[in-house]
């Protein structure tokens, strides 16, 4: 069975992006960016911890980009469990951040032991939406 985004007649050319491909995320990979996010706002949910920070003027990244990083400690489990949790958070971020994330912000999603990998995916997405709403509401 072919995936829904693939043409049924097989007319796709090599290297052509399927029309239903999810948006690519601008991923945080440098430790100093993770550390900077760890000093900023944070919001816990049942399935993950979300850290968020607004990037400052003059940082070498695209000021309109939404960047995201993923991490899981060894408390989450072995490498298989950590990678599964990160994959699920990555898919939730792909689904939610293009609409709910703010331009010029960095987000770090941290997996929780036994919960992130087992929680239903729709609940995982709702948790991320809730965390973003709380992180971006006006704080007085």
From TrEMBL:
Residues 56-65 have a biased composition (Basic and acidic residues). It comes from the Bacteria. Its EC number is 3.1.26.5. InterPro entries: Ribosomal_Su5_D2-typ_SF (IPR020568), Ribsml_uS5_D2-typ_fold_subgr (IPR014721), RNase_P (IPR000100), RNase_P_CS (IPR020539). SUPFAM superfamilies: Ribosomal protein S5 domain 2-like. Residues 1-23, 38-65 are annotated as: Disordered. GO terms for molecular function: ribonuclease P activity. It is an enzyme of class 3 (hydrolase). Consists of a catalytic RNA component (M1 or rnpB) and a protein subunit. NCBIfam families: rnpA. RNaseP catalyzes the removal of the 5'-leader sequence from pre-tRNA to produce the mature 5'-terminus. It can also cleave other RNA substrates such as 4.5S RNA. The protein component plays an auxiliary but essential role in vivo by binding to the 5'-leader sequence and broadening the substrate specificity of the ribozyme. This is Ribonuclease P protein component. It comes from Cognatishimia coralii. The gene is rnpA.
